[in-house]
Amino acid sequence: MNALTHHLPALLVVVPLLTAPLAVLLKPRGTAWAAATAASAMAFAVALSITAGVLDGQTFTYEMGSWSAPYGIALGIDAFGAVVILLVTGASTLVLLAARKSIDAEIEAERQPLFYAAWLLSLAGLSGIAASADAFNIFVFMEISSLAGYILVAGGPDRRALPAVFKYLIMGTIGATFYLIGVGLVYMMTGTLNLADMEARLADVTDLDPILVAAGFITVGLALKAAVFPLHVWLPNAYCYAPHAVTAFLAACSTKVALYVLLRFDFFVFQANLADHAVQFSFFMLPLALLAILVASGVALFEGHLKRLLAFSSVAQVGYILLGASLVTVAGLSAGILHMFNHALAKSGLFLAVAAIAVTGRSLEVSKLGGLTRAMPWTFAALVICGLSLIGIPGTAGFVSKWYLITAVLENGVFGVIAVLVIIAGSLMAVIYIWKIFEAASFGEPAAGNEGKRTVPTMLITVLWIVTIMNVYFGIRPETPAELAAIAANTLLAHVL
Q1: Quick one: which of 105, 240, 96 has its CA closest to 162?
Q2: Is the peptide bond before 481 cis (omega within 30 degrees of 0)?
Q3: What's the pLDDT at 133?
Q4: Does the bond joining 457 to the residue before it have cis omega, within 30 degrees of 0?
Q5: pLDDT digits (tens, 9 = 90+) for 161-201
Q6: Low-confidence ranges of the chain (pLDDT < 70)
Q7: Which of 4, 24, 60, 171 has minimal Cβ neighbours within 10 Å of its Cβ?
């Protein structure tokens, strides 16, 4: 490993973090966007390099200031972390490339430097969470990304974003507080904040009651951040009223990062030291996952606003991911982690299509999408293909992870059959709400005053189709993300008692 490669985990965070204050100073129109996009693209290149190294068997660790853990701040990225940083940096880069015109339409020119600075802070925070090997620094990065996220959601012209972001702030603060209480309890019993050191020292702790309480606080806190049903109430309005570019970015990676911390902490620290904790984890998470799939998909059936419909769909997709993880098997974890990747592809494509519709001036009410097929054929075709991936139609990325998930749950006897029926029911409901969009756009009459006054920017339609093609490509050639998911699953399960 050469000197530059050694610094990659730090560069992943440092580049966007240092570019953020620079973006504030760039007042000429477009320069803040250029700086943010360049920093995001550099972070994405770093993430690709780290992922290639992980696939080659390399381990990436970095000690800030050359202070060894547990006394210093350590960064560490394994296969699971590589999946997450790919999602975060990839989503940020593609959305920034695609949505400049959309951002110009929604954010006043004088406020754009601050908007892009907040975007970079969110990127740095989410990347830092995935790279950190220290429980407290995960909290620090969590707060950086959350505070920046609140600004991004509230940054658009829709004043309905203000109550939405207030609810998001309250729920996020409660989640972060619960997480911090849990970390404090573990620190009280172990005297360390480094995750690897926690795992080692917990083996010598005789009174495990505080650790069990900590597990409860951390799980609930991170479940709030991840919008795990029924703690998802902040998500639909936050996604619906945020600027369209922000929704596309956050929908691709925000909840996945919280799930990453939840699984990493639970498997590395608690399941490695608490007898029967794997059973407790499954007992609590499995019902919530199944309910998320059924209830959130059911609500999406009746939503009339395109962004709220897709937001409730995201809650259901978190259920699929959590269902795989709660099996606590290699097959189940592989399916859940793979679905993180594939859902990010599908949902970012769908929300980019929404941004393309909105930038023309059209309404996002499903009932007013009539004539969209003829007026915007390329956008509509991309929306349909990404929707098919969300459903899990063969030939798309979504099918691969759902097939992996069905295979994993069928290893569990009668319960497996019930879980498969829930997966099929959720997918059928997805067929219905995606068909509702297709039907309105194809067979509905154009609504008066909803003809669209502007054309879709070339870069937006280009990036939309890049994401759409990726949904098909990884449906046909899923080997790389599937390999990453399998390595990550084996890494997690290596810590289970």
Answers
A1: 240
A2: no
A3: 86
A4: no
A5: 888 889 889 998 999 999 999 999 988 888 888 888 888 88
A6: 1-4, 65-66, 69-70, 272-275, 447-453, 495, 497
A7: 4
What is the chain's alpha carbon radius of gyration, rounded to the nearest angstrom? 22
Bridge partner list, 23: none
**Separation between Cα atoms, residue 9 and residue 47, nearest integer Å:** 9
Instruction: Check residue 294 and report its DSSP letter.
Output: I
Q: Which of 46, 53, 76 is nearest to 138 (CA)?
A: 76
Residue 408 CB contacts under 8 Å (≥ 6 apart), including other chains: 324, 327, 329, 331, 332, 334, 335
Phi, psi of 61 (to 5 degrees): -130, 155
Rounded to two decimals, the pTM is: 0.92
CB atoms within 10 A of CB 95: 31
Q: Which of 12, 40, 36, 38 is nearest to 24 (CA)?
A: 36
- Structure tokens given for 231: 């703690």
- Phi, psi for 192 (deg, rounded to 5): -145, 155
Which one-letter amino acid corresponds to residue 458?
T
Long-range contacts of 24-30 (CB under 8 A, 24+ apart): 24/113, 24/114, 24/117, 25/113, 26/113, 27/113, 29/109, 29/112, 30/100
DSSP for 203-225 reads TT-S--HHHHHHHHHHHHHHHHH
Structure tokens at 216: 């409860």
Tokens of 253: 């990676």
Whole-number Å distance between alpha carbons of 272 and 120 = 35
Amino acid at 69: A
Helix, strand, coil: what percent of the chain each, to 5?
A: 80, 5, 20
- Give residue-wise pLDDT tens across range 466-491: 999 999 999 999 999 999 999 989 88
